[in-house]
Description:
With 331 residues, the protein is an all-alpha fold. The chain contains eleven helices and no strands.
Amino acid sequence: MFPYRIIPKLPPKKMINSDREFIEARRKSLRRFLNITSAHPAMYDSQVLQFFLTYNGEIVHKIKEKFRGVPDEFVSSPLAPIAKELVPPETSSEFAASKEQISILSKHVHKLRDIATRVAERSRGNSSDMNNFGKELIAIGNDSSVTSQWATGGNGGVIDTLKKSFRTLSVEFSSISEKHSLQNIREEEGVVEQLNMLHDLLQAYKDLCDRHERGVLKDHHYALKKYGAMKTKRMAATITNMEQHGVDRMDSRIHAQENEIATRESRNYFSLHCIHLESQLVYINVKILADVITTLVATQMKGHSEMAKLWEELAPRVTGLLPKETNGSSS
Length: 331
């Protein structure tokens, strides 16, 4: 119903062997889809979106069934008949330039998203590592094997003292692990998801441009080409003195093709008008990059501050793991 608007692709639906990671990624992708479409000025109050938001069940097939035969925006829009008047003369060249600029921006946003994803993955990895570090300390602390005088050379108290300390230190490393996990959530939700939103929007704009060039514009050119071929045949029929009923049929087809050309031309102008508006919508949403940088800085400041506090609280415990005389003799 909205082929001339920015509409992200629905996330793929994988039913068999859908793991938790896939389900979570699909949930986020669907949330971004709904955020973009429900905020779009041409779609937010449409019947198809309201049906999508309220229907419980297999939505894809049901929505196709319910809205099959419903005309698209061109047919229902009051702007369609005057679309030619709404398209500035420089639109074709501006469209090409805008498409190229947004394509370049999309590549940079894609790289930024990948970098932010790796940052978030490192926090998740640090969480796992710190948690496992604490588990290994517990394992050492719970080791019940007895060390002999022969093995320790009289320093058996060192390993016993360390075991006792390690059993309590694991709690601190668990807290550090939880902070890294929280940092991962902040980075994914606050930074990565915003970049995903902008990337989805830019990709949807590219798809819109492709639909215009490969669909509307191509159909218009084809209609003109077909019309030219018909006119050529009509001229040939006049020269060869074709029977009147044959000429009449040809004139009827030419007239129908003229109507088709007029419709295709109107669709082309309406498409260009919509692309003009959608281009402006994209550039308005580029401000997401500012939000991304602000969130990234705030997230890193908060995360590093919280992490530093935990390490500072842990420092006195670490320096006192062994008695001072043991520390002195070992140095």
